[in-house]
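Cont'd.
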Amino acid sequence: MIDSPLALRNITRNIDKIDPESIEEYLKTDGYEALKKTLTMKPKEIVSIIRDSGLRGRGGAGYPTGLKWYFAANTQSDAKYVICNADEGEPGTFKDRILMEGDPFSLIEALTIAGYAIGSNKGYIYIRDEYRLSIRRLQNAIEKAQQSGYLGLNILGSGFDFDLEISIGAGSYVCGEETALFESLEGKRGEPRIKPPYPTESGLFGKPTVINNVETLVNIPLIVNRGADWFKEIGTECSPGTKIFTLSGDVARPGAIELPLGTTLRELIYEVAGGISSEEKLKMIQLGGAAGHCLSPDYLDISLDFDSLAVKGLSLGSGAILVLDESRSIIKTAYSLAKFFCHESCGQCTPCREGTLQQKEILGRILSKKSSEKDLELLERLSVSMVQTSLCPLGQTASLGISSAIKHFKEEFLSYSERGI
Amino acid sequence: MAISKAIEQVTINIDGIELNVPRDLTVLEAAKQAGISIPTLCYHPDQDVKGVCRICVIQVEGAKTLQTSCTLKVSEGMNIRTNTPLIREVRKTNLELILARHPKDCLECARNLNCELQELANTFGIREISFPHLKKNLLEDYSTPSIVREPDKCILCRRCVYTCNEVQGVGLLQPINRGSETIIGTPYELPLSDLACALCGQCIHACPVGAITENSHIDRVWQALSSPDKHVVVQTAPAVRVSIGEEFNLAPGSIVTGQLVAGLRRLGFTKVFDTDFTADLTIVEEGSELIERITGSKTLPLITSCSPGWIKFIEHYYPEFLPHLSSCKSPQQMFGALAKSYYAEKTGLDPKDIYVVSVMPCTAKKFEADRPEMNDSGYQDVDAVLTTRELGQMLRASGIDLKKLPEENYDLPLGISTGAGAIFGATGGVMEAALRTAYELITTEELAELEFKDVRGLEGIKEADVQIGELTIKLAVAHSLGNARKLLDAMKQGLADYHFIEIMACPGGCIGGGGQPIPTTNEIRAERIKAIYEVDRNMPIRKSHENPVVKELYKEYLGKPLGEKSHHLLHTSYTARF
């Protein structure tokens, strides 16, 4: 965690403060108070609190969490599932790892509350294989919670049964997409499903499912304990609460920090991260991970909240912020994004499977100065098709980094063409 | 008063056309009702939607991005555009992206002029592929006598995956790898010859392009036809006469038996015979076998054995049920064995000089003809197997337009058949033909009603109880290997106490076989089935045991059904395969 006077320590309150393997220490910091309170209330009331809080998904889409819960709670079914999406694979993003390594009990408490609220008795944490320490700590926390009566049958004598299982991914980026995650969890090839139906109607094993990101979930015990109004005081009107931003690249102090939504890029880069690490000037910011836009310094004063960004056609994504100084090549950056998506496309739909390959091919020839005059036009055509017609968000966003780089750094692309594009 | 619950109607607007449609329709289907045909590629009318090619995209008011019309259901007030500049652009881009990975060898492709991708490229007016052409260079699979796979041509629509898994229950074709390295392949990318593939060829019908085709026997047939020392005879399967017309743009279900005979004669076949004849013979042998098994308390149910895809399937997947199979060879193989024994003797020909060609609706027949045990005449009984498509190709290449040919008759003696032989081509047909004969053999009474409607039609598994004298015979008929699997699984659980089961590997039976004209859809299958029953109705004799040549054959040569000579020439045994 970056040390900064601007930092808030709400969802990160326990990180580096308590022993993440000790349930006793967790209990001493109000741990499981929210669950105890929850179990005295009706499930509907919990859903209402979450809806009132305005909490929005921290995985990238910013969908209202309470609404997901509401839909799932109101769908009749013999079984429902709660899933924590801990398949944190967005390049430059490591917020969920920090939360799971540093405060695993909060996540488990949150999932139990979610289970109670929607009427589910079974939850899964789908986590990437590389997160070995997170997996160990979560497994330990689940066992301790089971031993102490916070998971399992008749939790705290309430009559409510809920248990959790960890499911480990196999290294595929697209399995972070919720429906591909379901497929993977069901033991199938990790490919996104066609929507609708949405998960709250037909998710894991075809049952109503709430799937939330780690960071989203750890807000739940806080909101239950401190109330929706407390939560709404933080951040902006439409994007309440905090967000963990992860800064990487050419900044003096890279790392993670919890800040209110609505913080500007300038504050993040210059106040929190100590500015550019070299003598060079700031050149480019990629906002939201590999699927995010590549922006010029003109965007420094944009407010980092869901709606301000949406108005400009941008997205907060996972909260990853990659900063590059003037010494970096935009073409190489774009090529590396193209390579990443070409490797990670599931291969199901035409625009993503072929589009990501063509992006790599075309950027490769631009990079080797063998480009034809129409290459930038071709990349633009690809982007339109990928955004408009891809089956899932991976394909819909796999061209954004590249097309925005071309938009903001066109001169550099042009300079790479021998003949001049 | 059986009025089914009406499906709720919704009002939608497509390209300015206001429309009331049932709410369970997709936008694609609704657009069709408005006379708008949205282009598709991965869509297949007989399959669940996949929504992967992203060609059929349309614009729905209020949606952030374009939607696929094959997956999207209509809803009240939906406002849809199917032809905007954006839609035209992205459809073309997606098509070009597919073309950029597809070989540019249309002229050398078996699907030239009958290819959905080619047709789309033509419809869209593609004159140039803007994106770099990135060839895949994957290995082709010529390992089986039946099916050829050329994965470089595959456009990853996954229709064959659906067919192999959901329809046929075989499950050998699956997507492998991911991203641009995705292929549709077999387990461990093994050749089909090393796998438990039934070689039914249904994947060929699923494929919109030429990635899966038959292993062609055209060259060897031309060679035989031009060899002066070969006496080349041909047999035509029941299903071919109601489908080969489609190779000449006739409507599905056109009956062209006489023209088919004439066309084959013009190609140079010395004798044009009919597999319907040996279908009749099969019925006499198999009917006798059924009676023997029932009266002798032997292994029951008896299961039919004329469909070679089915035989290969059971040998791979249910070897424990092999004793249930009829020991009768298929009509194709009975014909081959007789052509090189009985017919050779009768005509004074040396069987080594006789070359037997079959025209079959089937790809698995090529494998069957190739089976090492199929040489009871002392030679390979059947030398070459042409699919209906291959025969169409040969006729066209010879300038023969089937439509313009006169009707001619099959040659004697192996060209005489009954309506019972004809209906072998449709699911339930073997069962019905067997019943017509078994009834009269058991009761020695004349059968009043020849048509057993309970075993007809496209329902997956059909069951019936038939009263024959004092016997109640319990029957089941399954078509498609997926349904065969269901039936055998029920048998395994002791839930199926039938006497007699007919199983055909292909949906609809042979009229829907893997060697039939492309396209073959369920709608087309239904038309061909109608035609097959019409062929039956128009035959003067409709019971196999009344076939005069069959009677003569027993008298002159075979002796009696299930006799020693029959046993030697007309029956076979089966092998459990890994």
